[in-house]
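Troubleshooting log. The previous structure file for this entry was overwritten by mistake, so regenerating from the original sequence record. Sequence copied from the archived sheet and checked twice against the printout by T.R.
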Amino acid sequence: MALTLYVDTARWRAHHKQVLDQFPGIVPVCKGNGYGFGHERLAEEATRFGSDILAVGTTYEAARIRDWFSGDLMVLTPFRRGEEPVPLPDRVVRTVSSVDGVHALVGARVVVEVMSSMKRHGIGEQDLPQLHAAIEDVRLEGFAIHLPLDRTDGTDAVEEVIGWMDRLRNARLPLHTMFVSHLRAEELARLQQQFPQTRFRARIGTRLWLGDHEATQYRGTVLDVTPVNRGDRFGYRQQKTAGEGWLVVVAGGTSHGVGLESPKALHGVMPRAKGLARSGLATVNRNLAPFVWAGKQRWFAEPPHMQVSILFVPSDAAEPKVGDELVAHLRHTTTQYDRLVDH
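Regenerated output below.
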């Protein structure tokens, strides 16, 4: 009895091919929890479609995945002097976002990230004169720019990259490879046409692994069903049931990521109103669960436990049976399944 991730493998891989065709030279990204699939599975998929490189989030992830992927590994988190050393093979490429970081990695393979409108980390234009001398002591694999997802000010992503290409060219820095993030295929093609001597490589994770929502589905198995009447006490806190129906114990709890949710950026009046409504219900212990039964998303009877959740299903719905599976709307990047089933 488990929380299961079902993968329509043929459809999932067909989507991979579509993305690979749109982005020649793609750098697949496998970070965090492996986008819900796990590092090992994504490393196998990247090997299957012939990728020469795989991007990971941290040096710790690179150390874990190195035995699963034989190509180059790019660490996306920038190197910082004084960080804990992690034994890594020579095929690992480190991202660097400061001149000091370049100086500290003598002999290493590095990608230099430039500061984009994200304003997160990166080399600034004022650093380029010092960078020119520093890169002589490293094996430069190229430059990188990490762009924002939304451009609410109407600016153009391609123009931002072109601006950096011009700055790097004026500083007489090598422009054989530029790694980019969050560009559309047509934007990448525009850049490649304008700079034919530079190889543009898109680093893509979400769009590659999670772009076809219909290719995957989480389901939790029903473990127990207990009939209740209005006012019956139950659970750790001995709350009263809201009405007649069933308490349904389903696989999937906090250790799986159920009940955990990252903040969302809300745009527009309606999404904000819905967010306020959810917050108000939560103050009276009414929290919508991600599990669906009889076509409706059901409510938690109480906060999810470590490995299971208890739902309240009212009597106007069909009675769930032990062994039934409930579809669960879960975020891949915060979910840990018990098992993965290809079908």
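The longest strand covers residues 216-228. Archived copy saved in two places this time.
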